[in-house]
Amino acid sequence: MAVILSGIKPTGIPTLGNYLGALKNFVKLQNERTEDKFLFFIADLHAITVPQNPAELRANIKNLAALYLACGLNKDNLVLFIQSEVAEHAEMGYIMQSMAYMGEMERMTQFKEKSRKQETGVTTALFTYPALMAADILLYNTDLVPVGEDQLQHLELTRDLAIRFNNRYSDTFKVPEGLVTKVGARIMDLQNPLKKMSKSEDPGDKGCIFLLDPIDLIKKKIKSAVTDSDSIVKYDKANKPGISNLMTIYSCITGEDYKTIEAKYVGKGYGEFKSDLADIVASEIAKIQDNYKKLINSSELDEILDKGRDEATYLARKQLSKAYRKVGLGRKK
Ligand code: TYM
Question: What dihedral angle (degrees, nearest 10) is formed by the CA atoms of 216, 301, 79, 98?
Fold first, then answer.
């Protein structure tokens, strides 16, 4: 039995990028690997590394919990929990900070990008963020971490920290593997296809589709996506990044490969392609929104989160105690 774990930050409403790069893949893995154990969580401690409005954060945490389930995860084989409700994450995060070097953290692309954007000062937690992410993963003897491409550097660091700890103190942590989808690991902004689609964008942004956007708005955003002027539906990421990104979205949802899509739209132009894609995306997200509406105010959601918190705490406590002992903390050997 393998342990499969991943997390999403509640820093806004999840985007189509989060869905295609992560959530949809989680559901697929869960359907394919019925023998494995699945842990998914709401990375709220990660969210507060940049300033958050408390009321919005609380709402985003709950929305994200409901959206995990609304995307089709099977609750019977799932530990779904809120990171801050399992105190061991922060404790193991500290152990990982004690293993990580400044130079390693300074090299993290996401830190560099995010600290450049920060207007109110860069927090120390934003800097040490990857150590907490390593803790999230290593607390559960995780084998596989399904993520989008942007998280692979953090995962590489997690592996380095696990190996470093094991070498220094004897074998303690399983060294995890990252898992990215072949198609969809990096969905780009619809208005600027050279930039990643990101939930930290302004909610009114036309380049980003949020999973709780009104369906009509979703269609509009797809139809007004930036494309080049030659109007030939062809996958060519370097020269035609706009249409290539839209084809990636099309392929992720329909399962059709680029050649099949190209053949379907020979001589048809972008208008027809975008209009079909708008319907495809809208109907996929409409299903999620229907499920979401049933869940968001249900007692079932709280029950699932309570059960997830208890199970995660049990597993995390065991692993944290082991790490403490190895380091020499605590009175018992
Ligand atoms: P976050 O919240 O930024 O993103 C959640 C997941 O969505 C993927 N993703 C994308 N995939 C494709 N195209 C995009 N445009 C796109 N944008 C985001 C991300 O790669 C990710 O898989 N640090 C993590 C959260 C985290 C975590 C963890 C993940 C905390 N601890 C432990 C795995 C394991 C983050 O900020 O993800």
Answer: 80
Q: Length of the chain, please?
A: 333
Index of the ligand 1 atom closest to the CA of residue 5: 34
Which residue lies with its CA nearest to atom 37 of ligand 1?
Answer: 8
Question: Of 18, 141, 200, which is best to mutate to test ligand 1, by the most ligand atoms within 8 angstroms of its C-beta?
Answer: 18
CA of 203 to the centre of ligand 1 (A): 18
As a whole number, mean pLDDT of residues 124-152 equals 97
Catalytic residues: 114, 196, 199
User: How far is the C-alpha of 325 from the C-alpha of 327, rounded, in Å?
Assistant: 5
Distances (CA, A) of 128 to 94, 124, 327: 9, 6, 20
Domains of the chain: 3-185+298-327 (3.40.50.620), 215-294 (1.10.240.10)
27, 76, 247 from 92: Cα distances, Å: 28, 28, 41
pTM score:
0.96
Could you give the CA distance from residue 128 to residue 14 in angstroms, rounded to a whole number? 23
Ligand 1: centre distance to CA 3 (Å): 18
pLDDT of 201: 65
Tens of pLDDT, residue by residue over 209-221, are: 999 999 999 999 9
Q: pLDDT tens for residues 241-255?
A: 999 999 999 999 999
Nearest residue CA, atom 7 of ligand 1? 18
Where are the alpha helices (H) located in 170-298, listed in sequence order? 215-223, 241-254, 258-264, 269-295
Distance 232 CA to ligand 1 centre (A): 32
- Strands in 79-82's sheet, in edge-to-edge order, are 79-82, 37-42, 3-8, 144-146, 177-179
Q: Say how far apart CA 69 and CA 288 lie, in whole Å.
A: 9
Please give the Cα distance from 159 to 155 (Å, whole number): 6
**pLDDT at res. 117:** 82
